[in-house]
Amino acid sequence: MNVLDIITAVLVLSGSTLALTAAIGVVRFPDTLSRMHAATKPQVLGLLLVLAGAAIRLRGHADVGMVILTGLFTLITAPVVANRVGQLAYREQTIRDDLLTRDEMAEFGQTEDDGQN
Questions:
Q1: Can you tell me the distance from the alpha carbon of 54 to that of 15, in angstroms, rounded to the nearest whole number?
Q2: Which spans are transmembrane here (predicted)?
Q3: How sure is the predictor about 85, in pLDDT bands with cuts at 50, 70 and 90?
Q4: Helix or strand or coil: residue 70?
């Protein structure tokens, strides 16, 4: 067992741990916005760590390019999906207002309404 195998093992195990905490957060958190946060932030970082470990293990193989593309696609799409889910949850009023410290969507809606009148 060499140093690269140890680094790969650490990356894969830490990424798997982050993915597990994301899954627990999705089940345990009370509202849509908290669940969305748990489903995107640690899940993406966990996946990137696992992919980095896989890329180190596959070094010199043709599949490393596919692993890099998978990571880039995840980085591009996860924030967009989280944004859309958050907007939809807000629009459908399925969020808990008592958990919000500042309601920026309401401020945005007021300025949008003012501009149309």
A1: 11
A2: 6-27, 64-82
A3: confident
A4: helix
Q: Is there a contact between 51 and 116 (Cβ–Cβ < 8 Å)?
A: no
Average pLDDT, the chain: 84
Choose among 69, 12, 79: nearest CA to 46.
Answer: 12
In degrees, rounded to 5, the angle at the alpha carbon of residue 18 between the alpha carbons of residues 12 and 22 is 140
In the predicted structure, residue 49 carries a pLDDT above the cut 90: yes
Torsion from C-alpha of 36, 41, 44, 46, nearest 10 degrees: -120
Q: Which pair of structure tokens corresponds to residue 96?
A: 């808990």
Separation in Å, CA 2 to CA 6, 66, 106:
7, 25, 55
- Predicted pLDDT of residue 93: 76
Cβ contact 106:87 at 8 Å:
no
- The answer to whether residue 47 scores a pLDDT higher than 90 is yes
Which residues, other chains included, contact 44 with Cβ-Cβ below 8 Å and sequence gap of 6+? 74, 75, 78
Q: pLDDT at position 53, please? A: 94
- The first and second tokens of residue 85, run together, are 């889910």
Supply the angle between the helices 3-28 and 32-57 in degrees, to the nearest 10. Answer: 170
